[in-house]
UniProtKB/TrEMBL annotation:
All copies of domain Major facilitator superfamily (MFS) profile, residue ranges: 11-460
Keyword Cell membrane (UniProt): yes
Keywords annotated in UniProt: Cell membrane, Membrane, Transmembrane, Transmembrane helix, Transport
GO CC, one annotated term: plasma membrane
Keyword Transmembrane applies: yes
Protein name (database record): Putative MFS-type transporter EfpA
Organism: Actinomadura macrotermitis
Location, primary (coarse class): membrane
Length: 477
């Protein structure tokens, strides 16, 4: 392996480390919430804002951060994001009141958006050759799934052994090491410039529209989908986003150049990702609830029970995805991954109230490794139509639809489970609610599979030649 090749893989390791910290934080916090509530005196409704504040800031700023990264340089945006996230983690760990923790979580979301929005764009430019890019994206996808699973275990261990403060403080050494490594290993570039002529109005419309949309979704658990509050907030979000699209058609330096949406692979992959993540992210929540509320597992045991899914995803994404993509193409691998995920979800519809882990859950956990095939292939297709100068904003868009899909799935499917259960708390009633929601999640995956077959094309057959593939290996990020 040449020196140049080793440096590119070292740069990928830095990007994965930063993403691991951000993804880890998202799942590690959920296990510590009961301890946070007891210690800081959160009300039940207020406690949800330790999650919502992060999600709103993170999802709302991804698109803006991606475009700014294109303009000022993606390395600068990534390093700045790590610094903000790490500093905010220190504030979270030192929080002495609900207001301080919620404010620090919002700041964490800002830093997470800054670092995450440009990561895929940097991978695309670091690995222009399709086979190497598939391997890199597979490793990056595994980092996300592994972080979510590890966080569930680590959150319980840290909270029980030390205190809830450490679920945030653990980010400090990771953030500092990743930041220093990023300064040394990532290639810096000036970006495309144009910051002075950047579309400020478009940035305001996009950020406020996405934030309003995410806020609308996350508050449905408290106010309901059909309430006047939800309908009004949803209408405001749609109006802001419609105004943003109209603005992009006329702006001299648009935040989201509409040309990127001319590619079927770009807009199709983003829509498919929303459906896929809506079905999958809710699966993690619902299975964790099933294990604890129906089977009686503890927090640490629940995290350990879900580790086989992460291991299966890791094997398929790191060992097999790149080889299969090189041989059969991204579209065929994506279809296979979605088919496996769909089979796993409908397996769950048969879960009994007295289920056994080895026979009822472990096989499904292993089949869920289909995500390790689906996500790298979908990411490759979604980024295939991006020009080099647009890689950051396309990366930001891809991450935005990921967050919106996850938030939408959790809000919709957990509400559906609660509607079936009503006020009953028996294991049988809870199990019926979880199975109904898991079946609906399978419906979302089926819709994603149909769209994949109808819309996506192999990059060579897409409307636009994937210009990023012709970029030299020395392209700066």
């Amino acid at each position: 392996m040449s020196v140049q090749s080793r440096s590119r893989w070292a740069a990928l390791a830095v990007l994965c480390a930063g993403m691991l910290m951000i993804i880890l934080d998202g799942s590690i916090v959920t296990v510590a919430l009961p301890a946070v509530q007891r210690d800081l005196g959160f009300s039940p409704g207020g406690l949800t804002w330790t999650v919502n504040a992060y999600v709103i800031a993170f999802g709302g700023l991804l698109l803006l951060a991606g475009r700014l990264g294109d303009m000022i340089g993606r390395k600068r945006m990534f390093v700045a994001g790590l610094a903000v996230f790490t500093a905010a983690s220190l504030l979270c760990g030192a929080a002495t009141s609900p207001e301080m923790l919620i404010g620090a979580r919002f700041l964490q979301g800002i830093g997470g958006a800054m670092a995450s929005a440009v990561s895929l764009g940097m991978i695309v430019t670091l690995f222009p050759e399709p086979a190497e890019r598939a391997k890199a994206i597979g490793a990056f996808a595994f980092t996300g799934s592994a972080g979510a699973s590890i966080g569930q275990v680590l959150g319980g261990v840290l909270t029980d052994a030390l205190s809830w403060h450490w679920v945030f403080l653990i980010n400090l050494p990771i953030g500092l090491v990743a930041g220093v490594a990023a300064l040394r290993l990532l290639e810096g570039g000036p970006g495309t410039g144009g910051l002075r002529t950047a579309d400020g109005l478009g940035a305001l419309l996009a950020t406020s529209g996405v934030m309003a949309g995410v806020y609308t979704i996350v508050q449905t658990g408290q106010h309901g989908w059909g309430s006047a509050r939800t309908l009004l907030l949803g209408a405001v979000s749609l109006l802001l986003l419609a105004a943003f699209v109209a603005r992009q058609a006329t702006a001299a330096a648009p935040l989201l150049p509409l040309r990127v949406l001319r590619s079927r692979n770009v807009w199709g992959a983003n829509l498919i990702q929303m459906l896929m993540l809506a079905g999958l992210f809710s699966f993690q929540i619902l299975i964790a609830l099933y294990l604890q509320n129906v089977l009686g597992y503890g927090a640490t045991a629940t995290g350990l029970a879900m580790l086989p899914a992460a291991l299966s995803i890791g094997v398929l994404s790191l060992v097999f995805s790149a080889r299969l993509i090189a041989r059969f193409g991204e579209r065929a691998v994506l279809v296979t991954g979605l088919a496996l995920l769909l089979a796993a979800r409908y397996w769950l519809v048969t879960l009994p109230v007295d289920g056994h882990y080895l026979t009822d859950l472990l096989p499904m956990m292993l089949v869920s490794g289909g995500f390790g095939l689906a996500m790298p292939a979908l990411t490759g297709l979604g980024m295939s139509g991006a020009r080099p100068e647009d890689a950051g904003v396309v990366s930001g868009l891809f991450n935005t639809t990921q967050q919106v899909g996850a938030a939408l799935g959790v809000a919709a499917l957990t509400t559906l489970a609660a509607s079936r259960t009503g006020h009953l708390t028996t294991a049988g009633a809870l199990n019926d609610g979880y199975k109904l929601a898991l079946g609906a999640g399978g419906g979302l995956l089926a819709a994603a599979l149909v769209l994949t077959l109808a819309v996506l094309r192999r990059p060579a057959a897409a409307e636009e030649t994937p210009q990023t593939e012709s970029a030299p290996a020395t392209t700066t990020v």
